[in-house]
Amino acid sequence: MNQDWEDRVAATWAAFDDYAEEDAADFRAAVDALVAELPEGSPLGPFEQACAWDSTGHSDRAVPLYREALALGLSQASGYKGRRAKIQLSSSLRNIGQAEEGVKLLSAELVAPSDELDDAVRACLALCLSSLGRDREGLSLVLGALASHLPRYQRSMANYARGLVDPLD
User: Fold this and answer.
1) Which of 98, 123, 127, 150 is 20 to 30 Å from 108 at the Cα level?
2) How distant, in Å, are the alpha carbons of 33, 61, 133, 142 from that of 167?
3) The domain containing residue 87 runs over which residues?
C-alpha cells in the first residue's frame, strides 16, 4: 500500500492505548476500516486484523489471520512484517496451548538474517519453551539476548547462557 495508508495505520496503533478495554471492538473496527481500503488478497489486511485481535486479548481469533497473511505472501511483501507475524503468531499459539508449533516457527527465525527483531524472536521462543517445560533452554536464549545489551559482563553472560544448554563438563 502507499505511505499515506501506512501512516494512518501507524496513527491508529499509536492511539491504541487511548481505547478502554470495553472499546476493543471500536479499535478493531478502525483497523477493519483501513483494511477495507486494501486490494483483495493483500497480506497486509489479515496481518493488521490479526494484530488487532491479538492486542485486544483474542489470540484464538488472531492465529488464523496471521496464518492467512503469511500464506498470502506477507514475508515477500514486507520481510519485517513477515517476521513480526511469525513472532506474534508464535506468541498467540503459546497462548492457546500450541507452544510446540511456536517453537518450530521461531527456531527457524534464529538463523534468519539478523534485524532489530532478533531479541523479540528469542524472548517469544523462550516463552514457548517455558510453556513446554524447557526452562533452561528458554533462560539460555534470554540471557544470550540480554548479554549484548549489558554495559559489563557481556562475555560472562554469553558463556553462562551457552552453558545452560551445552555444558562443557
Assistant:
1) 150
2) 53, 41, 19, 17
3) 3-98
Give me the number of domains the chain comprises. Answer: 1
Give the Cα separation of 84 and 78 in Å (integer): 10
User: Which tens digit of pLDDT belongs to each residue from 23-63?
Assistant: 999 999 999 999 999 999 999 999 999 999 999 999 999 99
138 close to 165: Cβ distance less than 8 angstroms: no
Does residue 62 fall inside a structural domain?
Answer: yes
- As given in the structure block, the three cell numbers for residue 164 are 545452560
CA dist., res. 126 & res. 164, Å (int): 13
pLDDT digits (tens, 9 = 90+) for 112-155: 999 999 999 999 999 999 999 999 999 999 999 999 999 999 99
